[in-house]
């Protein structure tokens, strides 16, 4: 099965629009989780640490989506602002649901409260302490 590459690129552009310096992309399908660094430089945005890894990321992401039909994705970006109370750099967290509708890639953003709720629990569903210096977007 092939997917509509233009829509996949639109989604990756959506992610890129929120990365000012660097970040981490984590995506999960039914039994697989992948974590990738994201970095903005003068040459643009790179998933992974090199252009070669960027191409690998795009292939793995597309293949995982095709194999599972849907996945969840979290984008954690780092800002140049600092939290006044903790002194830590402020991080922004965004969540997405990505799915295939035939060959078409569809996605939706999760609401900030949904992301905060999901981030506030461990894998067993137990509530964990809130992270400091985090903005759920």
Give a short summary of the structure.
The protein has 137 residues and is an alpha+beta fold.
Describe the overall structure.
This protein is α+β, with helices and mostly antiparallel strands. It has one domain (5-136). The chain has three helices and seven strands; from the N terminus they run H-E-E-E-H-E-E-E-H-E. The chain has helices at 5-16, 51-68, 112-119, and strands at residues 22-28, 33-41, 44-47, 70-82, 89-101, 104-109, 134-136. Strands 1, 2, 3, 4, 5, 6 and 7 form a seven-stranded mixed beta sheet that branches. The N and C termini lie far apart (33 Å).
Which descriptors apply to this entry?
137 residues; 7 strands
Q: In terms of structural class, how would the helical and strand content be classed?
A: alpha+beta
Spans of at least 5 consecutive residues whose pLDDT stays below 50 are none
Radius of gyration: 15 Å
Largest sheet: 7 strands, mixed
Overall shape:
globular
H/E order of the elements?
A: HEEEHEEEHE
The overall strand count is: 7
What percent of residues are in strands? 35-45%
Overall average residue pLDDT = 89
Number of domains: 1
Topology:
Blueprint: H1 5-16, E1 22-28, E2 33-41, E3 44-47, H2 51-68, E4 70-82, E5 89-101, E6 104-109, H3 112-119, E7 134-136
Parallel strand pairs: 5-7
Antiparallel strand pairs: 1-2, 1-4, 2-3, 4-5, 5-6
């Amino acid at each position: 099965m092939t997917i509509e590459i233009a829509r996949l690129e639109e989604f990756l552009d959506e992610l890129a629009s929120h990365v000012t310096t660097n970040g981490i992309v984590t995506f999960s399908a039914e039994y697989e989780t992948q974590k990738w660094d994201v970095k903005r430089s003068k040459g643009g945005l790179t998933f992974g640490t090199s252009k070669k890894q960027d191409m690998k990321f795009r292939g793995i992401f597309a293949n995982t989506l095709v194999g599972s039909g849907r996945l969840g994705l979290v984008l954690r970006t780092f800002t140049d602002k600092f939290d006044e109370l903790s002194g830590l750099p402020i991080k922004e967290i965004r969540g997405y649901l990505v799915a295939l509708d035939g060959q078409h890639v569809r996605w939706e953003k999760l609401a900030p409260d949904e992301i905060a709720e999901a981030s506030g629990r461990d894998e067993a569903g137990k509530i964990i302490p809130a992270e400091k210096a985090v903005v759920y977007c």
